[in-house]
Amino acid sequence: MASGKLIVITGPSASGKTTIAVDLLASDPKLVRLVTCTTRAPRPNEKDGIDYNFLDRTAFEQGIKSGEFFEWADVYGDFYGSRKRDVDEKIAAGRSVVVVLDAKGASTIKQTMPQAIVIFVKAPIEELKRRLMQRIGFTSSDVAKRVAKLESELQLSTAADYVVENHDGHFAEALISIRDYLKNLK
Questions:
Q1: How far apart are CA 13 and CA 170, in angstroms?
Q2: Among residues 81, 155, 109, which one has the least CA distance to residue 7?
Q3: Distance from the CA of 96 to the CA of which of 21, 24, 109, 123 falls in 20 to 30 A?
Q4: Residue 1 belongs to some domain of the structure
């Protein structure tokens, strides 16, 4: 794969996109992770500057007004976004940047950066619902919000450059498929 690319891993909640990104980053030293920003509270074991840049709502809104973000969205009542400078610095250094975003954020990036590579991870709705219900720290309200959006999120896969199925018990196959796809990029 040529260096200096932005690789967006996206898909609905519980599709496995974060786990896939972690494995890709661990197996390829040429890839670097983009730490995005959010206003949501950290989950257990999440660290500021490592998992996300946790910002208060006022700081995030100031960043929006000043044009600091090249994509941002209000997702389930919290802001999420990617700062231009964080991506530009890494790409200018010849690194390929991996970022995990929801489908709406990936769509926005594809509009503002058409050269970005968008990989959509999906699974059958029943598997996604079950995975959501098993998430630690999620309330029934959290699960209900995400389940309500699953169908619309899955429809956004049509705008991706590459779509991979991540069925229960077949994670390794999904990961190999993505690695093969990235190796063949020029």
A1: 18
A2: 109
A3: 123
A4: no
Within 8 A by CB and 6+ apart from 47, the residues are none
CATH number at residue 81: 3.40.50.300
Identity at 176, one-letter amino acid code = I
DSSP character string of 46-97: --BTTTBEE--HHHHHHHHHTT-EEEEEEETTEEEEEEHHHHHHHHHTT-EE
Specify the number of domains making up the chain.
Answer: 1
pLDDT at 136 over 80: no
| pLDDT in the model for residue 10 | 95
Task: Work out the angle at residue 103's Cα, subtended by the Cα atoms of residues 43 and 26, and round it to the nearest 5 degrees.
Answer: 60
Going by pLDDT thresholds of 50, 70 and 90, the confidence category of residue 170 is very high
| Distance between CA atoms of residues 7 and 183, nearest Å | 13
Per-residue confidence (pLDDT) for residue 46, from 0 to 100: 94
Within a domain: residue 131? Answer: yes
The dihedral through the CA atoms of 129, 161, 38, 31 has a sign that is positive
- Beta 117-122 vs 162-165: how paired, if at all? parallel
Strand order in the sheet with 37-38: 53-54, 37-38, 78-83, 69-75
DSSP characters over 3-60: SS-EEEEE-STTSSHHHHHHHHHHH-TTEEE---EE-SPPPTT--BTTTBEE--HHHH
